[in-house]
Design a protein that fits this description.
By secondary structure, the protein is mainly α. It has four helices and two strands. It has a two-stranded antiparallel ribbon.
Length: 150
C-alpha cells in the first residue's frame, strides 16, 4: 500500500506541476509581447529536429512534464497490479475485525485508503479559498476580468 500512496502522490504532484507550468506559460503569452517581445514564443524551427527522433543524442521536443506524468501513472498502475495480485493470493490477511488481534495488512490498508481519499479531496490548490483580489484571465480570448467567472 505504501507504494500506491507514494505513486499516487507523485502522479498528482506531476499533474499539478503541469497545471502551474501551463498557468505561467499563459501569463507569459498575455504579457510578453508588450514587455520584451515574443521571447517565449520563439522556438527552434520544427524541421531542424522533426526527423531526428531516432538519433539518441540529438535534441527532440519531448515534454518533460508529460513524460513524468505518464511515468508516475505507469508506476502507480504497477503498484496497484502488485496489490491486486497479493490480495488475490492472501485474502485472509486483509480482514479487519474490530476487537481481534492487530492485523497489519488490514489496518494499514484501511489507513492508506483513508489517506488517499484525504489527498484527493483536500489536496487541490485553493480548496475552499476565495480571494476577493483575485484576477481571472480567460486565456482563450485573452481578456481580463476582475470579477468571479462563476
Amino acid at each position: 500500500m505504501l507504494g500506491i500512496v507514494f505513486s499516487l502522490c507523485w502522479y498528482l504532484v506531476n499533474r499539478a506541476s503541469k497545471f502551474w507550468q501551463l498557468n505561467w506559460e499563459k501569463h507569459l503569452d498575455v504579457i510578453e509581447d508588450g514587455i520584451i517581445g515574443p521571447l517565449y514564443k520563439t522556438t527552434i524551427e520544427r524541421n531542424y529536429y522533426k526527423s531526428r527522433w531516432y538519433v539518441l543524442y540529438a535534441p527532440y521536443p519531448y515534454s518533460v512534464s508529460k513524460i513524468n506524468i505518464l511515468l508516475s501513472f505507469f508506476v502507480l498502475v504497477i503498484w496497484v497490479a502488485f496489490l491486486v495480485n497479493f490480495i488475490s493470493e492472501n485474502r485472509t490477511l486483509f480482514e479487519v475485525n474490530i476487537g481481534q488481534p492487530f492485523n497489519y495488512y488490514g489496518y494499514s490498508s484501511l489507513v492508506s485508503i483513508i489517506f488517499i481519499i484525504i489527498v484527493i479531496i483536500f489536496g487541490k490548490t485553493g480548496k475552499g479559498k476565495k480571494d476577493e483580489f483575485e484576477t481571472h484571465i480567460n486565456f482563450d480570448q485573452r481578456s481580463f476580468s476582475e470579477e468571479d467567472d462563476g
